[in-house]
Design a protein that fits this description.
Layout (H helix, E strand, L loop, with lengths): L1 E15 L18 E10 L5 E6 H8 L2 E8 L4 E4 L1 E6 L8 H8 L4 H6 L4 H10 L2 H17 L2 E7 L6 H17 L3 E9 L8 H19 L4 E6 L6 H13 L3 E6 L7 H8 L3 E4 L5 H8 L4 E4 L2 H5 L8 H7 L3 E3 L13 H12 L3 H8 L1 H6 L17 E4 L6 H4 L6 E6 L2 E5 L2
Parallel strand pairs: 1-4, 1-5, 6-7, 7-8, 8-9, 9-10, 10-11, 11-12, 12-13
Antiparallel strand pairs: 1-2, 2-3, 5-14, 14-15, 15-16
Helix pairs in contact: 5-6, 7-8, 9-10, 10-12, 13-14
The protein binds zinc ion.
Length: about 425
Amino acid sequence: MQNVKVTWIRHIQTLCTLIGSTDLRRFEASQNIGLIRDGSVLFSDESGEILAIGTTEEVTLIAQEYHRVTTIDAHGKTVTPGLIDCHTHLVFGGDRANEFAMRLQGATYGELMAAGGGIYATVNATREASVETLIATAKKRLGKMLSYGVTTVECKSGYGLDDPTEQKQLDVVAQLKKEVPTRLLSTYMGAHAIPKETTSTEYIGHIINNVFPVLKQRKDVDFIDIFCEKGVFSTQETKQLAQKATESGFGFRVHADELSDLGGGKLAAELGAKSADHLLMTSPESVDALAKSNTVAVMLPGTPHFLNMTERAPARALIDAGAAVAVATDYNPGSCNSDSLPWAMHLAALQMKLSPAEILTGVTHHASYSLGLEHQVGQLAVGYQADLVLWDMPSYEHLTYHVGSSLASSVWIAGELVYEAV
Ligand SMILES: [Zn+2]
């Protein structure tokens, strides 16, 4: 008899294990979500690791070896790995509700900027906000996300554009890592826009020469991101920043081909970026380059929806060419004010023609790979972290079919029950 305290979820109608290679799942492999009917998962409440997974019949034999067992019967329910939101701008001050209202009246981005709106409105609000306020609001947001089954969140800075505020945003994420159960990844995105007082070339030089040494010292920053876009940062500047980021040991991500095709997708693939995100305007050439790379193409369908654009990223073409696709929210106050990954998943199904299985792979294994966590989370295999969601639905298809409220009934992170629906 083993003395470890364990949790045993059994008789799960639909268990999606996502078990498989830690490599990216291309073509048909992205449809393979490791389905088990009448499934069972057994995990340690102490180490937080999965001890056994399989059919209820198989796992029963192993569960009998433990005498301190919390047993949950999951007839009619579904279990998946915890969902991973691999692209958010979680930490920001203020909101832009007035700007949204103006947009509804037909105001252009230029008019919004002239009225004090746009990204600089959030920059000012974030500069003014105290660390305590930013922590409190981000915590609330993460609590909501947990209720949707989101157990890992990538958080970008980029609303400071000056060093103290960028560092403040990173400090907030560092503090949140200590205070919330959600797994958080921290991305420095000073290169989100050009500060008013400088040029893009000067600013990139400043980041490389003055900010990178500080980031290296902090030891709590995981990635560097850049907005590669016409009128913002050029491909040359993106390259420069990527090379320095890689030399300094950071993973690299790119906001690529969102509003115009600069070849950002291809560039991200060539630079070995962990992800190329948005890709609304990306070219067939970039699709091919991404397909041949290990750069994850992150689809953010909430953003063009929120901006009332007609374009969508070529998610189908990417998968058909062999690229690995993830889906995320792009949660931010300006262009996608939604914390809901399930909503983004619904849009990916409806507007991008991805299958429920491809989307589930996108918000678990592929998202995890893009964050360098593919050996820990994103699949429910023995030895992996017990980050999982018990859903009040009979099959995983309901994840993309159900809109507007959460069907998560219990959520665990590292074996700890962190959310229960009332
Ligand atoms: Zn973004």
